[in-house]
Amino acid sequence: MKKVLLTATVQSHICQFHKPLVEVLHNHNCEVHVAARNNLAEKNGMKLDFVDKVFDVPFSRSPKSSDNIKAYSQLKKIIDSEHYDIIHCNTPMGGIVTRLAAKGARKGGAKVIYTAHGFHFYNGASKKNWLVFYPIEKHFAKLTDKLITINHEDYKLAKEKFKTDIYYIHGVGVDEARYYPVSQDEKLEIRKELGFSPNQKILLCVGELLPNKNQKMAINAVKKLVRDFPDIVLLIAGNGPEKEAIEEEVNRLNLNNNIKMLGYCTCLEKYQRITDVSVSCSKREGLPLNIVEAMLSENPVVATANRGHCELIEENKNGFIVQVDDVDSMANHIRELLNDDDMRMKFGKNAREFAVQYGFTSVKKELEKIYFNC
To answer: Using one digit for the tens of pLDDT, what is the confidence trace for 34-78?
Structure first.
């Protein structure tokens, strides 16, 4: 039986993004361990109960934090004592610390895999990002046996510049059994259950409340839509440090009746099923699962221009792309979709057809090939 270690900065990352991989590994009789900082109390009951052993290791997202020195020490002891066949790391600091701690194990025959969920250097990134992050990733690629990318821009760059085996997969997988479209009658029932009227226009914005996610842009777009749709509601799902600032923006624009904060939501699929248009305002994305979830639910998307959104959204076919902070364009495209039922339905069907390749079924096959050359 092979032993596999999955690492990331936080345990919620494994919960949210790596269930398909763990299922593939278990199907091949692998024992799966996880090493990451335990942040599950912040995630509304999320459980890491689908792996065989969990180590609480104090990784920090900040490169300056001394916690990463402690994490290195703890992780090296774990790796040296457990004798893993494969060590699969994720997230920038999780990937750096793990590959340092795994150098000895790699010399002893362990294979090291790294999934890049979106390089910090990309077309349009700051010069500082290129100066800092590019040389780091290039160096650490030499300590990696297989590097997995989840968008074509990252794949192309890594293939040209990094000295290791480079792979591309369609994201980390979204559960098609959870995110799917329902009939109009079912939509009405769910709307009633959740307290929304049958004809109320509903927008959904999903993501951690961080400056990069830029939810204020969506709020300002709603301000421009309330004249045409007085009872329109923007549902914001997620928690994070920007919560208070977002609430202040809602109060400032007098939109308390039009914005609903859902917090960390464990029944997101219900909201996806009653959404008219999904929106995302991120400045940077690798490959956003929230967009795939929306598309699998047959929701058209209006989102900002970045490599992750552009990977998924086919302009004027399953959604629209706008520039970051171009509130007028975002509002205009949302209005266009809300006023045209035929367009909205057509875009939604196109979205689901496109997004199927990002579902669990497809991604598990891709992961199986990378791990087992099937």
So the answer is: 999 999 988 877 899 999 999 999 999 999 999 999 999 999 999
φ and ψ of 112, to 5 deg: -110, 125
The list of the chain residues with pLDDT below 50 reads none
Q: To which H or E segment does residue 206 belong?
A: strand 202-206
Query: For the domain bounded by 184-358, which CATH number is listed?
Result: 3.40.50.2000
Sorted by where each begins, the domain ranges of the chain are: 3-173+359-372, 184-358
Single-letter amino acid, residue 235? L
- Residue 38 in contact with residue 59, Cβ under 8 Å? no
Same fold, 3-173+359-372 and 184-358: yes
Which pTM value belongs to this model? 0.89
Q: Which residues contact 179 (CB under 8 A, 6 or more apart)?
A: 269, 272, 292, 293, 296, 297
In angstroms, the CA 44 to CA 266 distance is 8
> Under CATH, to which class is 3-173+359-372 assigned?
alpha beta
